[in-house]
Amino acid sequence: MIKHIHIYLSIALFTLISFCVNKPCRGQSISPGINHTLVLCTNNNVSSCGGNTNGQLGIGNINSSNVPVVVSFLSDVISVKAGGTHSLALKSDGTIRAWGSNSYGELGTNGSNNINTNPLNVNGLSNVTSISAGYNASIALTSDGKVWTWGLNEDGGLGQGNNLDLAVPTLVESIENGQEVSMFSRHTLVLKNDSTVWSAGLNGYGQLGIGSIASSNTFTMVSGITNAIAVASGGSHSLVLVDGGII
């Protein structure tokens, strides 16, 4: 039922924005960030709208837009994720493109420019199956079940066992057999293929689900969940869908 509601809402939103796009974008999925939105079109191009002070719209400038605009130099996309002030796109060949703010290395390009207004190739990653973007950080899952993180790590959300920012994708040694990843603010969730959920990062409101409010820079198994099928991280909370349709 919840899935159907999401589908109906998505269709309604896509219908609305299609009237505003210069070149019609019939959407198949959307991703909202802090103040900008990405739309994956059915032709596998990407449109964006909203705030753009850090180039997060990917349109070659830093002008904000209240109507969706086609992202520059980008095609064959199968998934999009909007972060705080940056954006990620997963292409059909298993590589990632990133654009927007790179103040903490969240684009994964090892570049010195803090603002990038066009999509850039993320260094060193291939065979990517899932992506997610946090406030100033990013995460990717590859087909072998390995998890890679980069960007801001002030609260340990990269799960690397330290609090050092990373400018390039770096393997999380403590996690294997990943199935899905989710990052939104400053904490991260990983669903493993054994249906357990693991979390890392800021935990002031108990969003890690580990029985305390202590933050963690290493991934720890979420308490009492062994039959998860999907995960979603919010600003200061987390959601898990378990077998049987219970959240």
Topology:
Elements: H1 2-18, E1 27-32, E2 36-41, E3 46-50, E4 65-70, E5 77-82, E6 86-91, E7 96-101, E8 115-121, E9 128-133, E10 137-142, E11 147-151, E12 166-171, E13 178-183, E14 187-192, E15 197-201, E16 216-221, E17 228-233, E18 238-242
Antiparallel strand pairs: 1-2, 2-3, 3-4, 5-6, 6-7, 7-8, 9-10, 10-11, 11-12, 13-14, 14-15, 15-16, 17-18
Report a brief summary of the structure.
This protein has 247 residues and is mainly beta. The chain is 7% helix and 43% strand.
What is the assigned CATH homologous superfamily of the domain at 124-247?
Regulator of chromosome condensation 1/beta-lactamase-inhibitor protein II
| Order of secondary-structure elements | HEEEEEEEEEEEEEEEEEE
Overall outline: globular
Structural class: mainly beta
Poorly predicted ranges (pLDDT <50, ≥5 residues)? 1-22
End-to-end separation in angstroms reads: 12 Å
Summarize the main sheet: 4 strands, antiparallel
- CATH architecture group name of the domain at 124-247: 7 Propeller
- Give Rg in angstroms: 17 Å
- Counting DSSP H or I runs of 4 or more residues, the number of helices is 1
The CATH topology name of the domain at 124-247 reads: Methylamine Dehydrogenase, Chain H
Extended strand count: 18
Mean pLDDT: 90
